[in-house]
Amino acid sequence: MQINLTNKTILLGITGSISAYKACEVARLFIKTGASVHVVMTPSAERFVSALTFEALTRNPVLTEKSESWTSALNHIEIGKMCDVFVIAPATANTINKLSKGIADNILLQTALAFNKPLLVAPSANTNMMEHHYTVGALKMLAVNEVKIIAPQSKLLACGDEGNGALAEPLEIFHQTTQKLLENSFWKDRKVVVTGGGTREKIDDVRYLSNFSSGKMGNALATALYMRGADVCLISTKEHTDIPSEIYTIDIDSANEMLEYTVDAIRVAKKGKMSMATMNSSEPVHLIQKRPYLFMTSAVADFTPKFPQMGKIKKADIGNEWKIELKATQDVLKELNKDGITTVGFKAEMDEKEGLNSAKATLITKEVDAVCYNLLENSQSFGTVENSITFITKDKTVELEKLDKVELSFKVLDESQKLSHE
After folding, report:
1. Which of 46, 261, 315, 342 is spaced 20 to 30 Å from 364 by Cα?
2. Active site members
3. Which bin fits 372, alpha (ψ -120 to 50), beta or left (φ > 0)?
4. Spatial contact of 304 and 210, defined as CB atoms under 8 Å apart
5. What are the C-alpha distances in Å from 333 to residues 77, 266, 336, 417?
């Protein structure tokens, strides 16, 4: 999944943890997106990875105790002014405790104290150090002061102990940092339900009927929504290991389960996540509930076996022909109660002449606010990295260019935002 961060600048802080080498992968992930990466390292970090390594990766000079200069921007004041976000990964227990108390006795801490934009911290330490009450308190204090904590993992640590304290995966650090760069006020904290993948209709306990839907568009859309700051629930039949871990996911199989869990997710979404709207000091603070959204990208089966069997039906018991009785499934998108929620449906067609008209008809037959129409050539059109979409509303039709599915998802969100009157 490709995310475009051209014109964004990341400041990456590295402290003296054995996991400092993983910061190389974090830097690489940002560089692949077109972002500019600057690095600041503590003296202890240089014991694990050299500054030269990061200069070679980023093509930018690295700020260290020895390289700091007041004749250029390579100092703890100016480097922060150039950057949009500061992520410290890895952050040792020592660094975390000092950060929370405003101590600035090395070049990285001085840079952090002078930085007034989004700051993220990815802890990495021995379990006992991580769970010490001083460190726990320090992390709480940082969170209160709007520092984003990228939670560590529980696994076998480099010291040989097993427990909480391993640095989060580089991709997760990338995801959570990128969210701070791309979130906007419209989508931030808005409840959004996304469905994805092709449903699997059980024949017996080892066989099912399904379709070629890969679930990639649902994953891409959920990722783009997360990056915009939305509170996302993804209901899918497919793999979603490459999406941000903070996205709430529900794994389902059948059309019936898709309907059941989507109804429940919409019910929760309509309750809303209340956000504080700041008023002037003479007026009380009001609670605002943002209107939720539903993006129905899933390919729900039209039919399901009428009599699904327990266990495995043996081939010898079937014979040379197998006639399976099918019955129509419920039309999930049509059945949903869409009152109080903005709904965007997805329609894939192979009929070049009538496909667009069929997609436009969906606006009325399924009572949705917009339809994303995709003209397929054949079964090979599924599972591709790129896609093209025609965004259809009752007032207009917008052709969205062929793009990587995440980049295309951002385009879909831009058009979907126009559906709101908030």
Report:
1. 261
2. 159
3. beta
4. no
5. 54, 12, 6, 20
Kind and range of the H or E run holding 56: helix 51-58
| Tokens read off for 4 | 């475009």
Burial degree of 144 (CB within 10 A; 0-12, 13-18, 19+): exposed
Residue with tokens 């039906």: 313
**For residue 378, what are the CA distances in angstroms to 207, 350, 390?**
24, 7, 18
Strand partners, 202: 208
Tell me whether the omega of the peptide bond preceding residue 123 falls within 30 degrees of 0, making it cis.
no
Domains and CATH numbers, the chain: 9-181 (3.40.50.1950), 184-417 (3.40.50.10300)
* pLDDT for the residue numbered 382: 61
Position with higher pLDDT, 288 vs 21: 21
What is the β-pairing status of strands 208-209 and 201-202? Answer: antiparallel
pLDDT (tens digit per residue) in 141-197: 999 999 999 999 886 666 676 767 899 999 999 999 999 999 999 999 999 999 999
Kindly state the DSSP code that residue 184 receives in the 8-state scheme: -
In the block, residue with structure tokens 């999930």:
332
- Tens of pLDDT, residue by residue over 265-319, are 999 998 864 343 333 444 444 446 799 999 999 989 889 999 888 898 888 878 8
| Phi, psi angle pair for 376, to nearest 5° | -95, 150
Q: Is the pTM of this model over 0.85?
A: yes
Q: What single-letter amino acid sits at 315?
A: K
Measured CA to CA in angstroms, residue 50 lies from 46, 91, 170, 324 at distances of 5, 17, 19, 65
pLDDT of 155 reads: 67
Question: What is the DSSP secondary-structure string of 226-279?
Answer: HHTT-EEEEEESS--TTS-TTSEEEE--SHHHHHHHHHHHHHHHHH---EEEP-
Strands in 172-229 per DSSP E: 191-196, 201-202, 208-209
3 state SS for 13-48: EECCCHHHHHHHHHHHHHHHCCCEEEEEECCCHHHC
Helix ranges restricted to H, 332-379: 332-335, 355-365
